[in-house]
Amino acid sequence: MSERKVTSKYYPPDFDPSKLGRVRQRGPKGPKRIPVRLMAPFSMKCTRCSEYIYKGRKFNAQKETTDEKYYSIPIYRFYIRCTRCSSEITFKTDPKNMDYECEQGARRNFEPWREGKLAEETEEETLDRLEREEAERDPMKELEGKQVDAKTEMAIADALDEIRMRNARIEREGQGGTEAVQVVREQLDEEKKRQEMEDEEAARRAFARAGKTDENWDGGGILVDAMDMMDAIVEEVDGVGDAVSEAPAQEEKPIVEVVKPKPPVPEFKRIIKKKQKPLLAGIKGKQVANPLGIVGGDSDSD
């Protein structure tokens, strides 16, 4: 009996290895698929059984490298199975939008943030728009705009120079600040005095004009002088004050103080009223006198 595990095998003398057929490997045709473990990149709904597959669910998938490329970036395709009906679902990468694209077997759920992002302008669209604007640009309008900008800059520079000069002048005046304040005060005082003199002159002319009017009306009578009238009124007031001060003082009557009697001091004593006892209360328990000497029937003498 031969051994079960041998290191050499028997080949008959008429063995011809060229007559052996080549054994081909069984497997899917096309690009090679690599088994991988991944999570669903987006939430989706199966088109066959309407099963919802949430984002982040783990699957045993197969990865395949496609012939498509985006700027030398390869695009990969992934194959997974539905968790309910086991139908095949495929999706691939989308380097342009930095996302994934669902191909068949499922439908991607609506995502508001994704719709808004797709509506935004991409870098390529931005470059195309800038190129179109560059081609449609008007050189005359640009020249006019440059002239306006130059005038604005000059005006701003002049305003800054004026502000600097004013600040320097204020700084110089600030060093002798007390002298400047004194000068301003003197100017104000002179202006006040001049105003007062003008007012006095106007009042004098008005009084003089009023005096002449009264003289013409009286037919050459007395010239009314307002100042003299005021002096006369002041003298009368002084005379009345002197008369009052020289009047003899009246004798002062003695003040009699009326002494009122003091009210009685209230006593806070509790008054207890005694109850009157009935007349028979004193007779109870005492022997009643017998003025007639009547003796009862029940006695020892009998």
UniProtKB/TrEMBL annotation:
Give me the ranges of the annotated region Disordered.
1-33, 115-140
Gene Ontology terms describing biological process: generation of catalytic spliceosome for first transesterification step
Provide the protein's localization. Nucleus
Residues where Zn(2+) binds: C46, C49, C82, C85
* Principal place of residence: nucleus
One GO cellular component, as annotated: U2-type catalytic step 1 spliceosome
Give the compositionally biased regions (Basic residues). Answer: 21-33
Kindly indicate whether the keyword Metal-binding belongs to this entry. yes
Query: Which Gene Ontology molecular-function terms are recorded?
Result: metal ion binding
In terms of superkingdom, the source organism counts as: Eukaryota
Bias kind Basic and acidic residues: ranges: 127-140
Keywords on record: Metal-binding, mRNA processing, mRNA splicing, Nucleus, Spliceosome, Zinc
Q: What does this protein do?
A: Part of the spliceosome which catalyzes two sequential transesterification reactions, first the excision of the non-coding intron from pre-mRNA and then the ligation of the coding exons to form the mature mRNA. Plays a role in stabilizing the structure of the spliceosome catalytic core and docking of the branch helix into the active site, producing 5'-exon and lariat intron-3'-intermediates.
* Similarity comment text for this entry: Belongs to the CWC16 family. YJU2 subfamily.
Per UniProt, subunit arrangement is:
Component of the spliceosome. Present in the activated B complex, the catalytically activated B* complex which catalyzes the branching, the catalytic step 1 C complex catalyzing the exon ligation, and the postcatalytic P complex containing the ligated exons (mRNA) and the excised lariat intron.
Among PANTHER family, the record links this protein to: SPLICING FACTOR YJU2
Q: What is this protein called?
A: Splicing factor YJU2
